[in-house]
C-alpha cells in the first residue's frame, strides 16, 4: 500500500481539527470575556527508507561488504499538537448595568520561565465549592441576594467569601471595592496566574487551576496594574476577519490533501485492476 496514504490522512485530520477550533472561536465572537484558541502544528519524525535488495561494495583493502541502498527520507505527516488560549485584553463595551463588571488590564508581569505575560480573572465558586476562573463579568443577583455569574456560580470576594447585597443599587470602584449605601461591603475577588497556559478550560468561558492549585490574590502582586470597570463587559478577543481567513486557508489545505488522496486511490485501482491482472 502507498505510504503516502498515511501522510495525506494525517494532514486531513490535522486540518479538520484546526477548522473545528476556528469554528468554536467564531461561534464565541460575541461571548463576553471569551479567549480565542490558537493551534500549533508539528510534523511526525521522518522515516529513512532503504532498499530491500543488497549490493556488494568493495572497500579499499580489497574486501567486499553488503550495502543496502538508501532510498531517502519519507515524511510521515503532521498533527495538531495542542491548542492554547490567547489571553490578550478584549475590547471593553459599556452596558449600563450595575451588576456588569470588566477587568481592564494594565501592566502584566512577564514570567521569566515561559517569557509570557500573566493574566487575571474573576474568582467564582461552583456547585461543589471549588474555585473557578472567568473573564466574563456578566453578573447578576440571585433570589437570595448573592452576586452570581451567568452560569449561576457565586462570585467571591478577595477573602474567598460569597458577596451578598440587598439590591443592585451599589457601585464598584476601580480598585474592586463594592460600596452600598455609603459603606464598603466587599472587594470583588481577582486572581492572578503567572502561567495562564497551565489553566484548564471547562467550557462556558470557565477555567480552573490544575490539581486544585489556589491562585494568588491579584491585589497583592507587585508590578501588576489593573482596574475594575462597572457597567461594562469585556468583549471576546476573537478577530473575526482573521479567523474567517484562517478557516478558508484550512479548508483549502484539507481540499488539497483530499485531491492527493483521490489520486492515490486511482493509482491503487489501476494497479489492482490492470497491472496486477493475470492473463
Automatic annotation (TrEMBL):
Domain Flagellar hook protein FlgE/F/G-like D1, chain residue ranges per copy: 118-179
Main location: other
GO cellular component: bacterial-type flagellum basal body
SUPFAM superfamilies to which the protein is assigned, alphabetical: Flagellar hook protein flgE
Domain Flagellar basal body rod protein N-terminal as annotated: residue spans: 5-35
Keywords: Bacterial flagellum, Cell projection, Cilium, Flagellum
Pfam annotation, one family: Flg_bb_rod
Domain spans labelled Flagellar basal-body/hook protein C-terminal: 230-273
PANTHER family, sorted: FLAGELLAR BASAL-BODY ROD PROTEIN FLGG, FLAGELLAR PROTEIN
Family: Belongs to the flagella basal body rod proteins family.
Protein name: Flagellar basal body rod protein subunit C
UniProt organism field: Jeotgalibacillus campisalis
